[in-house]
Amino acid sequence: MEHDAPAHPDRAGAGGVPSEHAATLHQRPGGYFKALAYVISTTAVIAIRSGSENITMKEIDAATAQLGP
After folding, report:
1. Nearest to 21 by CA among 60, 53, 67, 48
2. Structure confidence by residue, pLDDT tens digits, 49-61
3. 61: alpha, beta or left, given left = phi > 0 and alpha = psi -120 to 50?
4. What is the C-alpha to C-alpha distance for residues 11 and 38, in angstroms, rounded to an integer?
5. SS percent in the chain: helix, strand, coil, step 5
């Protein structure tokens, strides 16, 4: 079962990103800050456009797929 975490800062980790996804968000862009910022902002846009406004692994996967190899 996938855990949905609200993107709202009051119900999430620092900066509104769910804390349970912190390790994934660090690993996927290889630790590069610019790529991390891209993934976080893209993930948030995907969540907003989907109407769920939740950051889940589905949104993170979609955002990191855009980074390329």
Report:
1. 60
2. 999 888 888 998 9
3. alpha
4. 22
5. 60, 5, 35
For the chain, how many structural domains are there in total? 1
Residues in the chain, overall count:
69
Please state the pTM of the whole predicted model: 0.64
Question: Averaged over 12-18, what is the pLDDT?
Answer: 52
Beta strand segments in 1-69, E: 5-6, 54-55
The domain in which residue 16 lies consists of: 5-65
Q: Is 62 exposed, middle or buried (0-12, 13-18, 19+ CB in 10 A)?
A: middle
